[in-house]
Structure formats: C-alpha cells, structure tokens
Amino acid sequence: MNSSIVLPNVWRFVGLVLIQVLILSEVSLTSDGYINVLLYPLFILLLPIETPTPVAVLLGFTIGLTVDIFFGTLGVNASAGALSGYARAVLLHRFAPKGGYTGKEVIPAPVYFGWRWFIGLAAAFYAIHIFWYFAMAYFTPLYIWSKVLPHTLAAWPLSMAVVVVLVRLFHPKV
Amino acid sequence: MNSILQLFIRHGGLLTLLVVEVFCFYLISSYNSEQGEIASASWARYSGAVLNWKAGWEDYFYLRDENTRLRLENAKLQTELANTRLIEVPYRDTFLRKGQIDTLENKIIRPRYVLISARVVSNTISNRNNWMIINRGSEDGVQANTGVISRNGVVGVVRYVSDHYAVVMSVLHGQTKVSAALKKHEYFGPLIWDGENPEYMTLTDIPNHLQIQPGDSVQTSNYTLLFPEGHPIGWVDKAEPVQGSNFFKIQVRLSQNPANVRDVYVVTNRYAEQLDQLQQAVKDE
Q1: Whole-complex ipTM
Q2: CA-CA-CA-CA torsion for B152, B154, B158, B162, nearest 10 degrees?
Q3: pTM of the model
C-alpha cells in the first residue's frame, strides 16, 4: 500500500462526506420526503479492487458512522455502509471481466471497464445500499411496502444520476 | 499467526460484516429514539418466542441427562407398582409393626421388591441357550438369582454377577422356568422355551377343562420368588389339549420380544431368602 493509492481514497472520503453533509443534507436524509441522494457510498464502491473484504466492510462502517455523527442517526448509515462493503466484494466477483481482473485496473471505474459496466455495477451496489439504509431507518418489516421500498425506488435513480455526473466530472483513475 | 491472518483476510469478510452489523443494531436501537422504541416493543413481543426456542434447544441438549433421570424415576415407580400388588397386612395385626401404613387403604404394607434399572449391553436369541449381559453389577446392588423384567414383560434371571455387570439367563434358555398364570382363571404352571421361535414360549400344567381363548393375558403367578406377581408376560396364541393327560399345552406370545429388549429392571425380592428357607425346611422333613 503506497501513498499514491491511499491518498486519493482519503480525499474521496473527506470530499464525499463534506458534499453529503454540507450540500446534500439540505435536500436529503433530514425529512420524511422522497428527495434523497446518498452520495457517500461512492467512496466504498471506488475503493481499490484488491481491497480485502473485511477492510472494505470496516471502511464502509467508518464512512457510514462519520455521516451518522453529522446527521444524528447513529448506526443507520454505518450499518448500510458495512453491508455495502461486503456487497461490493460479491458484486465485483459477479461483474469480473473474462479472465478476471489483471491488476492494471486499480479501481472499478469507467476509465478501465467502460460506462456500461460501471453503471450496471453501481446500480446493483446502490440498490443494496439504499434499500438497507431505509430498512434501518424505519427498522421494522411492517413498513417495507409502505415506506422502505417507495423511498428506495425514489432515492435510487436520483443518487445514481448524481454519481454518474460526479464520476464523469472527476474521471477517477486511482 | 500469519496464516491465521491470511485465512481471515480470505474468509473473514462475512464474519466482519456480522460483527459490525450486530454492533450497528446496538447503536441504532440505543441512540435513535424511534428505532429504540421499535426494538424494545419487538423484544417484548418476540422475546417469549425466542426464549421458548432457546429452551427447546436446551431441552434437546439435556435429553441424555433427562433420559437417565427418567430411567431412575421409572425404577422407583415400577418398584412402587410391584409393591402395591404385595403383602397387605391388616392394620390391626399387632405382630407386624414394621412396614408402611397406606393411609388410603388403612393397611400396613411391607415393601417386598427393590428394582434396579439397567441396560442390556449384550444379547443373543439364536442359540438353544441364550444369555444377556446388563450394565449393573454387585456394586449397584444386583445379586445372583434375581429376576429381570422390562416394562412390557419378563426378560430373564441373573446368574453371575461381577462388580459392574451381570450375566442374565434369558427366558430363551433351556433351564428357564417362569411360574406363569392365566389372568382370567388364576391357574398357574411353568412357562418354558422349546428352543424354536424366540417370540413364543410354552405354558403347561393348565387343566384342560378351562375355557381358554387366544388373546387371554398371561402374567407372573403369585408363587414366583423371582418376579413381581401379576407382571405381564404375554398372550395366549393357541391352546391344545395334550393327548392322554388332563392338561393344555399353551403357546404364549411374549409381550416383551427378547430380540429388542433394552431397558430392564433387576427385581430383588427382599423376602426371597426367608421363603426359600421355609420351603427347604418343608422339603427336608
């Protein structure tokens, strides 16, 4: 692990948390409304491909807990982040290109794998994260049909749109 | 240590996830008022079911102990059952003060039998003379020449005793003779094994003027020293008059199949010695 891999991830962590907390909090995660954008999971998704699963789970937990501290929802985002860290490993295995990852691709970004591949991966990843986030927010199976799924279906395309725009703007390579 | 670390990195993802999620659930239900209320309400509602489920598993793990306990309990109950059929001395009989007073019947009962629970550890049925070994011996109170019964019927007679095991002469043995009686008529006779079918024994000396139907119950007689009186043995299968005599030859189907006997009781008759001595005294005259 050299700094050329670690540093970009540290910046992504800080940057995504700031955007989530300072800008997106004005529209999301604060009310019972349907406009929610969960951006910070992008940090988990864009971790280096070779990140061991336990590390990804713990980093997902960490960024989720950081966001939770700002929103006063201790554990809700942390739980979703940890699950995302695990789901990411499973999805990366599923989405592996023919012949596997070569090691030249540092992160699962469109630069290496193309937009189609990235959007497919991100869509599955975000569906899991957002669903689990709302499941934890409402915390009872009684609300699955009336609250959890509708909110998930509203937040999913919104978040995906913001993610695509950001990735397009910054074009991350490491 | 390094290899353990490697193993964890390879397979530890799920484990880490589970640990972290449990911690998250704790955080969510402790630091968020709404979720906390849901959690405690759900706990109140489902804890009964969860505790039941847990108790079910605990029961499962304690089955072995429970089994042992039940066997001892059974021995105790069988002892009481055997003794209730026993010498009942009128309350006012001043010569017999020793004994227990049965307050319901207003009688003094002297317990006659002691039962020791045991397990058959070795068994044969295919020879002319068959033997069993049970897992109780002299240290457990087993003596030679005591009867062995199961819940369903008679099993055999203890012949040789070591410290922790005893050899039992099976009912399927040429020398076994059980004093048996017909429940309906209270006539009795010796029950022996002819060495053929291990599920049947033969009862003789029953007068042929009696009405005997297949299915009639056969039990231990009142005169046996080995078994509790009235303990089941089997049912009449068929009764044929013996040519040139006044007796029946009755084939008895055993209620305890000797082939699959497992849990047994060794019956010690506390008065066997006294009765034996008295009978010897008569014989010597």
Answers
A1: 0.90
A2: -10
A3: 0.51
